[in-house]
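Researcher: Next entry in the queue.
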Amino acid sequence: MNTLEKLHTLIILFAVSIGLALGQISVIELNAEHFIVPFLLLMLYGLFLAIPIKDLRKAFSNTKFAGASLMINFIWTPILAWGLGALFLSDHPALWIGFIMLMVTPCTDWYLVFTGIAKGNVPMSATILPVNLILQVLLLPLYLFLFAGVLETVKISVLLESVFLVLALPFLLANATRFFLHKMSKSEILEESLIPFFSTGQIIFLSLAIAAMFASQGRYLIVNIKVVYTLLIPVLLFFLINFLVGRYISRLLKFSYRDSVSLNLTTLARNSPIALAIAVTAFPDEPLIALALVIGPLIELPVLAVISQILLLIERQSIHSNSSNI
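Model: Structure for this entry, 326 residues:
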C-alpha cells in the first residue's frame, strides 16, 4: 500500500472540511454544484479505462453475486431503513423521508473508487450498477408510498440524465480511448501512462467532487447543524448492520475476498446525488428532506473510507494467518 492509499481517509475528511468552509463564500456556493459531475466523470473514466470489456462480460455471469446484491439492496435495506427511521426519526417526518430516500438508493458512481481502494472486484461491481440505477428510481415511489405515506412522480428525465452522465458517458469514452489506442498500436500509452495517472488521480477527483458537493450545500448545512446529530445514530447503525449482513452473506456464499468487498460496498454506499436530485424535484417545499440527503455523505464518505481500510486490514491479517499456518 503506497503513501497516498494510507492517507485516503484523511484526504476525504479534508475534502469535506474544505468544501464546508468554501461553501460559506457566496460565489463559490452558487457555482460549486457545476463541478460535481465533471469530477465524477473523470474519476469514473479512469476506473473504466482500466477495465477491459471482456471482464465486464465475465462479471455478468456471476448470478450468485447479483442475486445477493439485489436482495440486500432492494428487499432487506428498505425494511432496515424504515425500521431505523421508526425508532429514531418518527418525530421528524421530513428527515425520515430523506433518510429513506438516501438508504434505498444504492450508489452508482464513487463507490467503485472505494471498491478499488479495498482491492475488490471492480469489474463485477460495475456490472451491477445499471440494474441498481434503474431499480432504485423505479422503486423509489413505491418505497415512499409504503414506508412514508407519500407517492411522488419521479421525472424520467432524471433517470435518463443520470444513466448517461454517471455511467454511459465515462464508460463509452474509456472504451473509445482503449479502442483507438489499440488501433494505432499505442497500447503502451494506455498501460504505462493513462492508467497509472488515473489510478493515482482517482482519490483526487473523488475528493474534488466531495468538496464541490459540500461547498454547494455548506451554508444551509451549518445553519441547520442540529440535524446532523438527529441523523447520526440511524445512519451509523445502518452502515454497521449492513456491513455485518454483507460479511455474513459473503461467508455463507463462500465469496472470495475480492467478491466479498464488492458485495459489502455495493450494499453500503448510497447514491445521495441521485436521491438529492429526486428530492429537489419531488419535494420543493420540504428543504429538510434535501438536507437529510446532504448530511448523508457527511457521515457516509468517512465511514466508507474507514471500512475500506478495515477490509484491507482483515485481508492482510487473513494472509498473515494463513502463511503462519503453513
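Model: The chain has one domain: 32-313.
Researcher: Noted, moving on.
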